[in-house]
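Rotation project, supervised by the postdoc (A.L.). Task for the rotation student: set up a whole-complex structure prediction and record inputs and outputs verbatim in this book. Inputs entered:
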Amino acid sequence: MRLIIDEGTPYFNMAMDEAMLLLRGINAVEDTLRLYVMKPSAVTIGYFQSLSQSVNLEYVREHGIPVVRRVSGGGSVYHDSMGEVTYAVVLSTDSVPRDYLESFKLICEGVVRATRRLGCEASFAPLNDVVAHGRKLSGSAQARKLGALLQHGTFMYATDVDTLANSLRVPGVKYGGASTIRERVITVSECVDRRVSREEAIEALIEGFAEALNVEFVRGKYHPAELELAKSLEWKYRSWGWTALRP
Amino acid sequence: MGVIEASAKREGEKVIMIRLTLNEKCVIESAEVLGDFFAVNPEVLEEMLRVLVGAEAVNVEWRGFLEDMARASGLYGVSRETLDSLAVKLAEEVSSACGEGAAVK
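Outputs recorded:
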């Protein structure tokens, strides 16, 4: 299975995830695990989310944090360039369970194993989270197109949780009115009581996904078609019309 | 008339909200679905919402519509019970805004 490790703007990263999904759907590219860092730190929101209801717009504007709408469902996410690695798994739908829950469970197992490798006991929490000590350590989202599946998600190895809590808005109804996102989130570093590095996090994710998906990874590059399509799609992700599709 | 909203969520599920813009005759001018759920075919979901435009809000059978919308779009993360609850809340909101007669069949 191809492995790509990268960093880039949130616009590029969202565009590349979608490009890989579309091209995998027509068998133009192979199954891939992509691990990337958002530069700069950014917020992504789910395809169906209201921008103003899911993001503290005043705070992110004040702190220059870009906001990008994803092609996948799910909730709002803070991607910390200094403390979070995002994973994206692109597979043919033939190789994953059709049932959403089962497919989330299968792919999230990569994150669970990565977390355990770093010394933190974690488990899958339906529908789409990985938790440690009852607190969220990773959230994932999926999109499916043309017989291909994209699952991307966070791996918070040392996320600045205060900035995360200040950047995101979670509807009261979601957590029964609980006010503090901070209390519901944990990083791997906090869990193991030492600062985990980005290199350690990436190494653990590679090993965790290799075990969970029962594959061997081969470091690869983007195909020219992926780069070309991602470049075109980047316009969408940079546009206010897309970000504020649901104000 | 303005905008009416109804949302529903159960423990362990995703949030789903329907937002309707109604004119002075309580005809739906736009319909949006919001939330952190997933859909296998999001385009189908959006197409079904467009079907609501031009309908009198009190004549929409919300339970049936939401079930069909969920089935056709492959909505995931929201149970049938939550959709039922959303249908009831929507009908209540419509009744309150437009008068009696909203259907929850």
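Student's summary: Chain B touches chain A at residues 7, 9, 12-15, 17, 32-40, 42, 76-77 (CB under 8 Å).
Supervisor addendum: Chain B has one domain: 2-98.
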